[in-house]
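[worker-b] picked up task from shared queue
[worker-b] task type: protein-ligand structure
[worker-b] ligand name resolved to 2-acetamido-2-deoxy-beta-D-glucopyranose; SMILES cross-checked against name lookup, match
[worker-b] sequence length check passed
[worker-b] input payload:
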Amino acid sequence: MAFSRVALLICTVIGYFVIASAGNFYQDFDITWGDGRAKILNNGELLTLSLDKASGSGFQSKNEYLFGKIDMQLKLVPGNSAGTVTAYYLSSKGATWDEIDFEFLGNLSGEPYILHTNVFSQGKGNREQQFYLWFDPTADFHTYSILWNPQRIVFSVDGSPIREFKNMESKGVPFPKNQAMRIYSSLWNADDWATRGGLVKTDWTQAPFTASYRNFNANACTVSSGTSSCGSNNPSSSNNAWLSEELDSTNQERLKWLQKNYMIYNYCSDTQRFPQGLPPECNTA
Ligand SMILES: *[C@@H]1O[C@H](CO)[C@@H](O)[C@H](O)[C@H]1NC(C)=O
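[worker-b] inference finished, payload out:
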């Protein structure tokens, strides 16, 4: 009797850790809209969003984060996804919000998705960089990561950095570092602008459109009632190495190479858009 109770307890504890380390959508997220179009499946291991003519759908994290290294695997809408947008981002609230965005702009079958990124600090964005991917993002799950620490924001795809936004407060550029953010994701119709600038419309005969999520993992500081789980005195203890992580020389080279080969738009090269001069963070000399 005593033995089986101990065995049961051990199994329960082991089971708990396995589930916790695999990430669990029931535990970490709330479905926020879509009237049944968003679903958590397989005991919390899988989440799907869907979009049809009547509505899209979305979810958000239960936690608010102030800095983190956050991974999510996504498999995007396959086939003719033109007009659809899958947004996956961090955002705070209020008029002077901060935001870190991944947006996936769908396309006709066989034509490339665009991965659109942006960074807002204190309500100001206009910092778009866009990329093609080096794989078909609808054939399988791929990992999209955000490293956000006080010095930098790094966007990565399957572990390879594609964009770095450095803290350049020294040049007068506000950096997101005081407002906690939640994770949000949604699948919606944006055929007024998403595909070839709005020329290609959503083909509703292909609906419902579905995007899938799995293996959420966050090494992050969560904030509740104004208090960070990381404390304020000891930010760089060993399990929080990400809090001071930077790109080593190998990753800097990779970033350069990926930008050279896959970046299709960079606001920092768009002199037409900024006739008064490029934003100060673009001047990295
Ligand atoms: C869709 O495909 C066209 C043609 O290949 C390409 O110009 C465009 O960048 C692609 N992506 C989007 C989202 O429009």
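[worker-b] attaching auto-annotations
[worker-b] Residues 184 and 225 are 20 Å apart (CA to CA).
[worker-b] releasing lock
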